[in-house]
Design a protein that fits this description.
- About 35% of the residues lie in helices and about 20% in strands.
- By secondary structure, it is an alpha/beta fold.
- A seven-stranded mixed β-sheet has the order 8-4-3-9-10-12-11. A three-stranded antiparallel β-sheet has the order 5-7-6. A two-stranded antiparallel ribbon has the order 1-2.
- Bound molecules: S-adenosylmethionine.
- S-adenosylmethionine binds next to loops.
Length: about 300
């Protein structure tokens, strides 16, 4: 899986410096030492939970060489030293932004959206408050906006149902990604990945070469940056949590602790979605499986 705008390469990357000359960092000539790799693995896991496996040095090369060349840092050791002295956390934020994988697309795992509409929305038809949904690693926003489009469509074809509508909180650790998502503007390849021409026409408006999510879809979604390794107590309670395609990057202990916090954050009988290739079995006994449309949701046991 390669994040958008982040190219993978196993070689050093040549980057022009502001001084004009080109320097190659993290190449065969200036390799990452085992000690530097271990220290960087530790930094990343401690800061955001992401575990770099063995022989994933290429990810550091492809994602951080440009930044390091720009900053005049000749080795990963220099970057680690700068991170130690980064009192305001500015460099840390940039490094995390670069190291996260933001792959996503519209209506990813369609079965989840069918369960959302047919089981969860229809079960909440007479709710006396908004249905609260958390998109807990929202990346560039396709997930929360897809949820909002489902809610829009559900309410359009069933007038009077879901009378208090749906509220969506969308969070991600990457502040850059959250800022991008909140503009609701999509260009290039992202337009076609998972959206039909009809959905594009109905829920978006042209914006130059790009398209922008219409206000009636945008208004349900509140974006914030948030690290899943931290406390969830400021989030309030939810009826549904989408935590998809992010637990795979974490250790088993962290997965377990996040699933425990999710269980505490859901209303009784609330639903959890994880990625279609992820499983929660062995990490928590608090959910029961609900199968439908070829997909799986997890319902918090009463
Ligand atoms: C592969 S994307 C998944 C996007 C979307 N949920 C989907 O399934 O299409 C993973 C996202 O998790 C975010 N992420 C990684 N570590 C995180 C953490 N500790 N807290 C919150 N978000 C994190 C990344 O920034 C990235 O945008």
């Amino acid at each position: 899986m390669t994040a958008m705008g982040k190219s993978a390469s196993s070689h050093g990357v040549a980057v022009p410096l502001s001084s004009g000359h080109v320097e190659t960092v993290l190449s065969e000539e200036t390799p990452i030492t085992p000690r530097e790799y271990r220290d960087f693995q530790e930094f990343l896991e401690k800061t955001c939970g992401i575990r770099l496996g063995e022989k994933q040095e290429y990810l550091i090369v492809s994602r951080l060489s440009g930044l390091m060349a720009e900053q005049g840092m000749a080795s990963l050791g220099h970057l680690l030293e700068a991170l130690r002295q980064d009192a305001h956390g500015t460099l840390k934020t940039i490094v995390i932004d670069a190291m996260t994988t933001n792959e996503t697309f519209w209506f990813r795992d369609m079965a989840h959206f069918r369960i959302l509409s047919d089981t969860i929305f229809s079960g909440a038809d007479r709710m006396h408050r908004p249905l609260r949904i958390w998109s807990a690693a929202c990346s560039t926003g396709q997930e929360p906006y897809s949820i909002s489009m489902m809610a829009e469509e559900y309410r359009r074809v069933r007038p009077g149902r879901l009378p208090h509508d749906v509220e969506i909180v969308a969070t991600d650790i990457s502040t850059r990604i959250v800022a991008e998502a909140s503009t609701g503007i999509y260009c290039g390849m992202t337009l076609s990945r998972g959206l039909t021409a009809q959905q594009r026409h109905r829920f978006f408006s042209p914006q130059g070469e790009c398209i922008r999510v219409n206000p009636e879809i945008r208004r349900r979604v509140e974006f914030r940056s948030m690290n899943l390794t931290q406390d969830f107590s400021g989030m309030g309670r939810f009826d549904v949590i989408f935590c998809r395609n992010v637990l795979i990057y974490f250790s088993n202990a962290l997965k377990k602790s996040i699933l425990d916090k999710i269980a505490e954050t859901l209303h009784p009988g609330g639903y959890l979605f994880v990625g279609s290739t992820e499983s929660i079995s062995g990490f928590t006994g608090r959910f029961e499986m609900v199968a439908g449309h070829g997909g799986i949701a997890y319902r918090l046991k009463d």
